[in-house]
Design a protein that fits this description.
This protein is mainly β and 128 residues long. It has one domain. The chain contains 1 helix and 8 strands; from the N terminus they run E-H-E-E-E-E-E-E-E. The strands form 2 sheets. The protein has a 5-stranded antiparallel beta sheet. Strand 6 and strand 7 form a beta hairpin.
Length: 128
């Protein structure tokens, strides 16, 4: 299977500048973007590119519900797609988005079709 997740070059540049003191702060992760362009014709997840600045086919963005820290080097973001949102859509790509609207990390996955009346809760681990 293809490598299905990546931290974007844009985010790595900001991390580099923040850790070296070139900038004093960096924008927080505030949203998760979802799309339906993360699979090939056979339905298998494709490899995202570290240079992507957008999902292949973004369909929605949602605010982060919560952040947990399951260990010292992982931030776990949780987002809920409400029961009456994105009905019938096949979600197969997601990205962490910072407060400036930049994609920071991208994850492609097998399609999950959103049924009416069912809420989806996604977790996205940002590992350092």
């Amino acid at each position: 299977m293809a490598d299905t997740s990546v931290i974007t070059v844009m985010r790595r540049r900001i991390l580099c500048k923040a850790t070296s003191g070139a900038i004093s702060s960096m924008p927080a992760i505030t949203k998760v973007a979802f799309g339906d362009g993360g699979v090939d014709a056979n339905g298998d997840p494709i490899s995202p590119s570290e240079t992507q600045t957008a999902l292949n086919n973004e369909i929605a963005r949602y605010d982060i519900d919560s952040v947990e820290y399951p260990d010292d080097t992982t931030a776990r973001y949780t987002v809920t797609i409400q029961a009456n949102d994105l009905i019938g859509k096949k979600i197969n790509e997601a990205a962490l988005v910072d407060g400036n609207g930049n994609l920071c990390a991208i994850k492609n996955m097998y399609s999950k079709q959103k049924d009416e009346g069912v809420a989806f809760t996604f977790t996205f681990d940002d590992e350092f």
